[in-house]
Amino acid sequence: MIKLFIRERLSWILFFFIIHFFMLFIAYIDESIPLSSILYIVFLSSIIFLIFCVFRYHKETKFYQKLKDEEDFFDSSTFSHPLRPFEKIVQRNLMQQLEQAKKDGVQTQLHVTQEKDELLAWIHEIKTPLTAMHLIIERLENREVKANLTFEWLRIHFLLDQQLHQKRIFFIENDMYIEHLDLESLIFTEIKTLQAWCMQKNIGFDVDLQAERVLCDAKWLSFIMRQLLTNAVKYSEESDVMIRSYEHHGQVYIEVKDNGRGISPQDMPRIFEKGFTSTTQHEDSRATGMGLYLAQKAAHALSIHIGVQSALNEGTTFTLAFPKSNDFVDMKSM
Fold first, then answer.
1. Exposure class string for 61-85: b at 16+ Cβ within 10 A, else e
2. Which of 55, 76, 97 is the last residue of a domain?
3. Which domain holds residue 326?
4. Which residues make Cβ contacts (< 8 Å) with residue 46, sequence separation at least 6?
């Protein structure tokens, strides 16, 4: 702040020294003016000017130092009271901009909330014709047509499901209910949803659930498993997807392993980024880059760690590491 004050008052300081230099110059060339007296006057005035600058520094920078150290600009009650006209102008403009920013923020929040509610309502409405479409597809006798239509129906279903959870993810803390879940029931429900797609691609499941129960939220854990299983099926051909659960040091782990195309080393650090698909398979238009991103967000809220190991053209293993039961004490109170 001292440097800023000197830069701000540099013209005054230069003017002071120029005037005194001019006085010394006049005394030097005019012998009738005693130089010692002028030096004494310059010395005294310099001390007085220095004291004056120190006083003005503390007086003038108090308001701006408080403004600079302010952490919450949306709380106008913490602003320092202005004492000088220019400070009052600054504070008045800040208050006007603050009020306008608050109004704009409220309007934006209302607009976003309205769009979210409209989109959620549309998703729920579109589920009715989708359910009817699925019943019609089930009645088809042509197996090839039935399999193709079921695959496309699943794609629409999963995209709507992702969109629905994407809008809910920001309020996940208000949408959680922690309870003991039966893993077999949860996992086989998700596998059944993928049944037609798996039959089309000749993919099976090898399930070994040594840990049968876990403490978690049913809806969001189902969503996370859905994303992992969908990716495993999507990027595999004529192979088995292995699902294993076990307990180690009081923690439950779930592994989902496929023998698909794998993930390249250069893509590994970015697979959980929003919108990221792949650098090696960039022409794949089916990928949205949202599944793993949303799964990671949901897992973080549930204190679940998602680990991944992969080798290109060999397969990928995702591991869900659940927190210990004691870590859910705070979450159960939500």
1. bebbeebeeeeeeeeeeebeeeeee
2. 97
3. 179-332
4. 20
238 backbone φψ class: left, alpha, beta (φ>0; ψ -120 to 50): left
User: Residue holding tokens 């004494």?
Assistant: 40
127-155 pLDDT tens trace: 778 888 888 888 888 878 887 888 788 88
Helix axes 218-234, 291-301, angle to 10 degrees: 150
Residue 257 forms beta bridges with which residues? 242, 317
CA distance 253 to 209: 10
Rounded distance between C-alpha atoms, residue 296 and residue 306, angstroms = 7
C-alpha R_g of the chain: 35
Q: Give the whole-angstrom CA distance, residue 176 versus residue 334.
A: 7
Query: Could you tell me if residue 123 is inside a domain?
Result: no
Q: What beta strand segments (E) does the chain contain?
A: 178-182, 204-209, 213-217, 240-248, 251-258, 305-311, 315-321
pLDDT in tens, 156-171: 888 888 878 877 777 7
Looking at the domain assignment, is residue 44 inside a domain?
yes
- Going from the C-alpha of 26 to that of each of 34, 44, 47, 101, 113, the distances in angstroms are 10, 18, 21, 58, 75
